[in-house]
Design a protein that fits this description.
Helix content is 33%, strand content 22%. It is of the alpha/beta class and 421 residues long. The protein has two domains: 3-64 and 377-419, Urease, subunit C, domain 1; 65-370, Metal-dependent hydrolases (TIM Barrel), CATH 3.20.20. Strands 1, 2, 3, 4, 5, 6, 18, 19 and 20 form a nine-stranded mixed sheet that branches. It has a six-stranded parallel sheet with strand order 10-13-14-15-16-17. A hairpin with an 8-residue loop joins β2 and β3 (26-34). The radius of gyration is 21 Å and the shape is globular.
Length: 421
């Protein structure tokens, strides 16, 4: 458990501030924290009387990172082992996944399927360590779609026993399931508009769900003041999802010019999760056991996607330059990227043509806007005191954020999870 710093008033002093808004860095900055919130931010501001001082001199002060696409709950990748693990084992082992996510600097995350309200509340109440969670509970899928765990042996292998079935077909069933997960406490809805890499019975680029089915999910969510995030990889499913006026496009690797223009005109967020495929291919080469634990034909799917991704890079850069709104997300799961979330920033710079500042804003201020939270993401008075202090300058080299040893302070809501200053 993270230990509270004794003083109710804290002053982080002397560092270079990148506040998450996109404004120019501020040297010799002071961030004053009272309880869970930021009380003030300024250049060379006086330290309040009685405050505990944390010296960030020569380092960079950043907001906590917001990962808009994670799967924070555990299950064994080896299907034999998964079938032998009790559901309570998976729940308890999930606490290590969530703790590691916080340890790498992610203080807020949108869980895209796997975490129910119990995980969110246990973190909020301090019983377990992890980023504050927004939850979708279930990844809604059509029969035989990306979220359907049916296997050719003729049964559905339950992946997370604490969740309702994510399978629905037709407008009425989608309406019922959306209402059910909202009743169960979902902060937003997640639905699959194409197949995916890890699913057994579909191709990653095939479209799934009709326009009317996705539209009813959007309408039902809107009545509860909630939004819809859509898993979509191939262009046909992306087009259907965008036509349904979704809030965020997850993955969306094979957008075209028409899709980009549509996203700009509607203000749809893009959460591109770029690092997942290339790092999976690297991991597959280094760990043959991991490679053999797949049920789906992941390797061939990923090789095909990676080759096509290289051809998409000019279009992605053009789309970002034109104004597609991008929010940071990794698709971190039991499968890959746990505790390595910040590697995504490197791919945003290299593959989307972002500056390091733009990439950081996509993971802080813009990510907060994407998830509908005005109390996180920017270091300014009134917001939660989610603060990172980093050795070095990420604007000069964004990859320093991948080095855990450089994270000298990880603070969430005024509590220091890591503090080596």
């Amino acid at each position: 458990m993270a230990e509270p710093i004794e003083s109710k008033r804290i002053a982080i002093v002397g560092g270079t501030l990148i506040d998450g808004s996109g404004r120019d860095p501020v040297k010799n900055a002071t961030v004053v924290i009272e309880g869970e919130r930021i009380a003030g931010v300024g250049a060379g501001s006086p330290v309040p009387k009685g405050a505990m001082v944390i010296d960030a001199g020569g380092r960079t002060i950043l907001p906590g990172i917001i990962d808009c696409h994670v799967h924070g709950t555990y299950r064994a990748r080896d299907m034999r082992q998964h079938l032998l693990n009790a559901p309570t084992y998976n729940v308890l082992r999930s606490t290590a996944v969530l703790k590691e996510t916080l340890a790498c600097g992610v203080t807020t995350a949108r869980d895209m399927g796997g975490a129910d309200a119990g995980f969110r509340e246990a973190i909020a109440e301090g019983y377990i360590d992890g980023p504050r969670l927004l939850i979708s509970i279930a990844m809604i899928s059509q029969t035989g779609g990306h979220g359907d765990a049916w296997v050719p042996a003729g049964l559905r292998v339950q992946k997370r026993a604490w969740l309702p079935s994510p399978v629905a077909d037709g407008v009425d069933e989608v309406r019922r399931l959306v209402r059910h997960v909202l009743m169960a406490g979902a902060d937003f809805i997640k639905i699959c508009a194409t197949g995916g890499i890890t699913s057994v019975t579909d191709s990653w680029d095939e479209p799934q769900f009709t326009l009317d089915e996705i539209k009813v999910a959007v309408a039902e969510a809107a009545m509860r003041r909630k939004t819809v995030a859509v898993h979509a990889e191939g262009v046909d499913g992306i087009r259907t999802a965008l036509e349904a006026n979704i809030h965020s496009l997850e993955h969306g690797w094979f957008i075209d010019e028409q899709c980009a223009d549509k996203m700009i005109s509607t203000g749809t967020w893009w959460v591109p999760t770029l690092a997942l495929v290339p790092l999976s291919l690297e991991h597959r080469k280094a760990n043959t056991a991991w490679d053999k634990q797949q049920l789906a034909n992941e390797a061939s799917k990923e090789h095909e996607i990676f080759e096509r991704m290289q051809k998409q890079i000019p279009l992605w850069k053009h789309a970002v330059k034109k104004g597609v709104r991008v929010a940071f997300g990794t698709d971190q799961s039991h499968r890959l990227l746990v505790g390595e979330n910040l590697v995504e920033l490197r791919f945003m710079v290299e593959w989307l043509g972002m500056t390091p500042m733009q990439a950081l804003v996509s993971a802080t201020g813009q990510a907060a806007e994407c998830i509908g939270r005005n109390d996180v993401g920017v270091l300014e008075a009134g917001r939660y005191a989610d603060v990172l202090v980093v050795e070095g300058d990420p604007l000069a080299n964004i990859r320093i954020l991948e080095e855990r040893a450089r994270l000298k302070l990880v603070m969430k809501a005024g509590r220091a999870f890591t503090n080596t200053l």
